[in-house]
Amino acid sequence: MAKRLDVSDLDIYYDKFLAVQGVSMTIEPRSVTALIGPSGCGKSTFLRTLNRMHELVPNARVEGKVMMDEEDLYGPNVDPVRVRRHVGMVFQRPNPFPTMSVYDNVAAGLKLNNKRMKRSDMDELVERSLRSANLWDEVKDRLNRPGSGLSGGQQQRLCIARAIAVQPDVLLMDEPCSALDPISTGAIEDLIVELKRDYTIVIVTHNMQQAQRISDTTGFFNLKAIGEPGALVEIDATTKIFTNPGNTATEDYVSGRFG
Amino acid sequence: MTSLTKTPTPQDLPAVSDVPLTHGSLPRRAAPLTLLGSVLAGLLLFVLDWSPAWCALLAAAGYTLTVYLWSRRVEGSRKATDRVVTAIVTSAFLLALLPLVSVLITVVGKGLARFDATFFTNSMRGVVGEGGGVHHAIMGTLIITGLAALISVPVGILTAIYLVEYGRGRLARYITFFVDVMTGIPSIVAGLFAYALFELFYGPGVRMGIMGAVALSVLMIPIVVRATEEMLKLVPNELREAAFALAVPKWLTILKVVLPTALAGIATGVTLAIARVIGETAPLLIAVGITTGDNFDPFDGRMATLSVFSYYEYVSPGVPPEPSLDRAWSAAFLLIIIVMALNLVARLVSRLFAPKTRA
Question: Which positions fall inside the ABC transporter domain (chain A) (predicted)?
């Protein structure tokens, strides 16, 4: 459970286009790392390299190293599908499977992989995951209803339950609250803070208050210049980034004086 | 202020106070009454022995012109254009409906004559003149179309999966192109292809049900590919990513997430493709021929099908011709019923398999 990620000199390409250059950072286990920065600077692209989702885009590739504890995620003979078994992901828009019930959505990680499991064990796993996602009390009476019938905030928590049901080591979140109202956002933020006891969490967000509220470490991404690749400008403890950043670009961005 | 020189000066535009918020409108019943008048005028011409086509055309044109000029005077040009376009679109719709209605009325009227029990239970073996039935042709149509579906549905769906989920680069482009080409193949060419193919193995003059099925699949595969492709493209990429993020391999993602999500559309597309080929005549005429008795073995000799049966009863009727012609119409009517039933099934299927949001 909860592994450390160590990224060194990571260059991310879309075909010949260098999107993100020279990222090095350490992501501590059992902590929340927030990635902030203007749109198009490569935060999400970087996030997707951490579970090898990036290479689903044709001709996309990376150079550099991403170590998860002692293993290189991009080493030879590493199977991307197995990487994703260890590194789960929650997306910007809630995406429960429309053909499946609430129950089946949570169990999807096992059922889609044809894993056999005793009914009682499966029930227990689904309940535990839904409880961890603070959703159990709201859906326990309608586990067999379609997952897409829930509200947006509930759907997103369902997706989080689905992601943690397979018990990953790391949980990636790509702007998980940007499609939600403040109440649902609050619920998910509380959930993230609870989840960091067991998981390593990396979250991309545009909401700087959110980064301040929930993260321990904050990384600021920016484009070096128009037409240049994005890069990690600075990463440090969240309080330091928001009160006394080491870089003027960071200070301009977090204080709203960007550009 | 120099940048504003190109915008119209106040003198070019009417003062805002001169543009009223209301405008005149035609009396409430004006348009329906004009329409009634034009229709009556058309009927009058019809009574005066004009051809019905001219009557309808003149009535439509008369209505459109009257309403346009009237509306333009009273309501202004935007409303008038609106009325003209409404009239034109409605006429086009009625025109498109005309052949359908005409065919339905004719076929139902003439086809009902022989809708009796004998028609459905007997074959044509030993029948000269009255009586006889299409039991053999119904079974033949079902067997041959069923076999065609059995061939084309897997090929079509797998091709579409390749094109949408895997196909990159040249091969995928070629396949798309040739699927497009296949859509345009005349059905008789498909029949000739099947004949030529089987002649290689069985020698000249060969006729078998399976040949008809092969010919029909040539016509059916591109329809299935197209329909399935469109449906697979509609599956949001987010669902695929969600499955990948759960460490589900690609083939399982396609099998268990993408296909079930698109199932309703695919099933509808397949049903409509079957409906499309079930009435084909030309390829079956070449590849399967016709027979008077029951032959339900698609790998052995000629079989009867509804469309070919209908054709032969019409081109080579007995003496007197009436019983044959009645049978031809009834067979055609039966085909229409089958196609309509398939369309209804398609709708039902799409409703049953659609992902439910509320339940």
Answer: 5-248
Question: CB within 8 A of A98, min separation 6: which ones?
Answer: A146, A147, A148, B239, B261, B355, B357
Report residue B358 as tokens.
């509320």
Chain B residues within 8 A of A159 when measuring between CB atoms: 242
Based on the domain organization, do B205 and B108 belong to the same domain? no
User: For an interface test with B, which of A95, A103, A104, A155 has the most B Cβ atoms less than 10 Å from its Cβ?
Assistant: A95
> A87, A51 in Cβ contact below 8 A?
yes
Residue A118 sits in a domain whose CATH number is 3.40.50.300
ipTM of the complex: 0.90
**Which positions in chain A touch B353 (Cβ < 8 Å)?**
none
Q: What's the pTM value of the predicted model, to 2 decimals?
A: 0.84
Give the bridge partners for A146, in sequence order: A101
The answer, for A160 touching chain B at a CB cutoff of 8 Å, is no
Q: What is the pLDDT of residues B185-236, one digit of tens each?
A: 999 999 999 999 999 999 998 999 999 999 999 999 999 999 999 999 999 9
- Residues B222 and B346 both lie in one domain: yes
DSSP assignment string, B308-352: HHHHHHHHS--SSSHHHHHHHHHHHHHHHHHHHHHHHHHHHHHHH
Among residues B113, B140, B170, which one ends one of the domains?
A: B113
Nearest residue on chain A to B359, alpha-carbon basis: A145
> Considering only CA atoms, which of B230, B244, B265, B257 is closest in space to residue B349?
B265
Task: Give residue-wise pLDDT tens across range A230-239.
Answer: 999 999 999 9
Residues 79-138 of A with CB under 8 A from B: 81-82, 84-85, 88-89, 91, 93, 95-99, 108-109, 111-114
